[in-house]
């Protein structure tokens, strides 16, 4: 019995041991499972080398981060490990320094011999400085950065801000702004340089005024360790003060490992290039270092082998070596450089110093004047004629009349507005056209003239009178636009011919394009139709007297030497009454219809007419208006541009004189359309019709012989006031 009881007790004890073991194993397994689910591993890499692995509880932050590094995630984005909540295993990598451009970048210079060393640097300018240090060709700069609510695409620093924010070099504020115009602080610039150079933050206190509570503690401590900053004499760093321009160049130079070449600077600068930065100023060498390129420094030190007198090209600029093999120093402005070389002539120096502007060939706009460069990197020409354009002794374009030049420049000033490219574009030309034709500056006035068809001598005199008095006939309007167009660089020339079916004397301006196509510019007639002056009706249907191709103009122009032809009335009696068809005289041009003084271009078809010998004698011209077809024969006045006539048979009069032999006693067609009355002189032998008339009409309605339909507002020339100008229309304190 006792033995049996002992066996039972032994069995029970064994059972308890087994159960306890199972319970312990289950608990351990459960605990182990909970740990795997609630903890994650953060691995820190330097390249492929593992620096450390840190366990972090689910949703927690990293306690131990390897010091002295900036970090990025697997996608390359910058990361601050201390501020990251961990929800899964994570790999972080040492962030390498960004690729910086080689050489000495001129990233912050002065103007007008002033550097303003104690001035501030805006956050936008800081973004531009940092961007200028990057080697854009060897690195992938994001096209877009953060979207800041106060940075529009029109902001001058927009692209720079997008780049630095996309790279994580500079960020914005919690409210979504960047504050481009606010001064950048000393701490902000330092932190951005740390990110640019891949220098990690250090949790150490380097200055008494940069405590653990200040956001820039790590960056300031790291920059101090790197030797970029030393603080003020009182031991403070003053992180929230705006950084000065002098402090900026010193911080940036030190961060980039850029040491000014003092020997070279002493050779270049016998005196300081800036009147507000003396040679004993604490940041003098750093300031001058960023003003000149390393190429120039190398040249001055004799590291460039070619030291012959003349110009040496350095990047986008040039320097000039004189006969003593020393560099010439220039004041800002234009300089005549003569040393017996092919490069003799006038050059432009944009800022005080050694650099001369390089010039491409062609027209140049500088300092409110137009110049011409004949060969690349050469001087501005002087005493030189380029077609209708003349460039004087000082290289500047001139009309030949200094007073007229002053008037034209004053009118064009709002159009030119400091442009440095040539002004050969329709936008500038249209603006000049409108400034004369579409403003209330100029008005019509009858003036006695004696100019004949084909003459051009009137242009210079008429232009000056028009700008001085603001009144004149078509000659004066055309001349005013002529010299405005030439000042813009156009090869413009004047025409004195006829207009309308009555071939009345008229003047306008011509400009040919690169292909030789001729274009008409008629400012006076544009003004007259637009304003309804002298009884004319305002233009409708989109008529525009700016840049009309010859032969296809909406007004009938007759050039000197053209055969003048007026078609007779047709059988329907349509021609000669209202409405009136004006038939073209040049092949390929359009007819137009005049209704109540308004001109409407018509679709025009041309059919060749040949004689019994197959010789082209003219064209049947056909138009359709309001469902009715009208036609007229236009004899061949001159061989059309794209038609070569067959040589006439021997003894046949030239086709361009008359299509058929005229009847005996009939005057030639190109002299007058009908025989003149007895005692009436030929048309071209009389004084110009519009010498005492208002602007001509484009219809064949007879013009009154002496006075305009509506008398001019002021029948006498207006004398200018004595004051008339003719214009119208327009800080570390040494510690950094």
Short description:
This protein has 736 residues and is of the alpha+beta class. β18 (492-499) and β19 form a beta hairpin.
Question: What summary fits the major beta sheet?
Answer: 5 strands, mixed
Anisotropy-based shape: elongated
Strand order of the largest sheet: 2-1-5-3-4
Measured by DSSP, the beta-strand proportion falls in: 15-25%
Radius of gyration, Cα only, in angstroms? Answer: 42 Å
How helical, in percent, are the residues? 10-25%
- Do you know the CATH topology of one domain? C8orf32 fold
Counting DSSP H or I runs of 4 or more residues, the number of helices is: 14
CATH class of one domain equals: Alpha Beta
How many β-strand runs? Answer: 28
| Average pLDDT figure | 76
The SS-based structural class is alpha+beta
Q: State the separation between the terminal residues, measured CA to CA.
A: 100 Å
Low-confidence stretches: 23-35, 567-578, 637-646, 652-663, 665-736
Q: Which CATH architecture of one domain?
A: Roll
């Amino acid at each position: 019995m006792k033995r049996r009881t002992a066996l039972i007790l032994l069995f029970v004890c064994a059972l308890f041991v087994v159960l306890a073991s199972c319970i312990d194993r289950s608990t351990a397994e459960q605990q182990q499972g909970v740990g795997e689910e609630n903890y994650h591993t953060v691995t820190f890499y330097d390249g492929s080398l593992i620096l450390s692995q840190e366990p972090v509880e689910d949703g927690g932050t990293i306690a131990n981060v390897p010091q002295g590094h900036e970090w990025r995630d697997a996608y390359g984005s910058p990361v601050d490990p201390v501020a990251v909540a961990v929800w899964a295993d994570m790999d972080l990598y040492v962030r390498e320094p960004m690729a910086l451009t080689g050489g000495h970048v001129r990233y912050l210079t002065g103007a007008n011999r002033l550097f303003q060393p104690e001035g501030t640097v805006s956050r936008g300018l800081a973004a531009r400085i940092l961007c200028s240090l990057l080697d854009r060709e060897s690195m992938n700069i994001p096209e877009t950065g953060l979207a800041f609510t106060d940075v529009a695409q029109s902001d001058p620093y927009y692209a720079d801000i997008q780049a630095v924010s996309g790279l994580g070099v500079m960020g914005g504020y919690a409210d979504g702004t960047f504050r481009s115009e606010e001064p950048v602080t000393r701490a902000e610039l330092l932190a951005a340089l740390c990110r640019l150079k891949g220098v990690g933050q250090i949790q150490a206190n380097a200055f008494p005024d940069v405590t653990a509570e200040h956001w820039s503690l790590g960056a300031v401590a790291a920059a101090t360790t790197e030797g970029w900053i030393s603080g003020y004499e009182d031991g403070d760093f003053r992180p929230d003060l705006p950084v000065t321009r002098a402090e900026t160049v010193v911080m940036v130079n030190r961060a980039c490992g850029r040491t000014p070449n003092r020997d070279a600077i002493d050779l270049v600068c016998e005196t300081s290039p800036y009147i507000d930065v003396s040679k004993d100023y604490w940041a003098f060498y750093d300031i001058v270092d960023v003003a000149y390129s390393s190429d120039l420094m190398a040249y001055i030190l004799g590291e460039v082998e070619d030291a012959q007198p003349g110009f040496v090209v350095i990047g986008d600029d040039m320097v000039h070596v004189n006969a003593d093999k020393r560099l010439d120093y220039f004041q800002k402005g234009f300089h005549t450089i003569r040393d017996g070389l092919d490069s003799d002539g006038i050059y432009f120096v944009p800022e005080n110093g050694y650099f001369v502007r390089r010039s491409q060939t062609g027209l140049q706009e500088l300092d409110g004047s137009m110049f011409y460069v004949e060969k690349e990197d050469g001087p501005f020409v002087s005493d030189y004629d380029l077609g209708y354009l003349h460039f004087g002794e000082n290289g500047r374009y001139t009309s030949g009349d200094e007073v007229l030049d002053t008037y034209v420049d004053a009118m064009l000033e709002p159009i030119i507005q400091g442009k440095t490219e040539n002004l050969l574009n329709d936008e500038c030309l249209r603006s000049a056209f409108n400034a004369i034709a579409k403003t209330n500056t100029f008005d019509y006035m009858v003036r006695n003239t004696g100019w004949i068809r084909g003459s051009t001598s009137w242009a210079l005199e008429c232009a000056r009178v028009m700008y001085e008095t603001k009144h004149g006939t078509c000659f004066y309007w055309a001349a005013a636009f002529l010299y405005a167009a030439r000042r813009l660089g156009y090869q413009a020339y004047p025409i004195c011919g006829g207009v309308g079916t009555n071939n009345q004397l008229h003047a306008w301006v011509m400009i040919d394009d690169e292909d030789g196509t001729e274009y008409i510019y008629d400012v006076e007639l544009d003004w007259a139709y637009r304003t309804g002056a002298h009884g004319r009706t305002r233009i409708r249907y989109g008529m525009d007297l700016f840049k009309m191709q010859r032969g296809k103009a909406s007004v009938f122009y007759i050039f000197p030497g053209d055969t003048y032809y007026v078609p007779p009335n047709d059988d329907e009696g349509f021609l000669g009454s209202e409405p009136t068809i004006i038939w073209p005289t040049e092949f390929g041009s359009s007819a137009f219809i005049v209704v109540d003084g308004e001109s409407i271009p018509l679709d025009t078809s041309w059919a060749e007419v040949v004689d019994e010998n197959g010789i082209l004698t003219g064209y049947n011209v056909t138009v359709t208006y309001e469902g009715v077809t009208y036609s007229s024969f236009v004899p061949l006045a001159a061989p059309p541009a794209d038609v070569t006539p067959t040589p006439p048979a021997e003894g046949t009069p030239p086709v361009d004189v008359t299509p058929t032999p005229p009847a005996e006693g009939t005057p030639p067609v190109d002299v007058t359309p009908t025989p003149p009355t007895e005692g009436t002189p030929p048309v071209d032998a009389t004084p110009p019709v519009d010498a005492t008339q208002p602007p001509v009409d484009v219809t064949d309605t007879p013009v009154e012989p002496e006075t305009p339909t509506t008398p001019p507002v002021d029948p006498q020339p207006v004398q200018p006031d004595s004051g008339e100008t003719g214009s119208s229309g327009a800080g570390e304190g040494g510690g950094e």
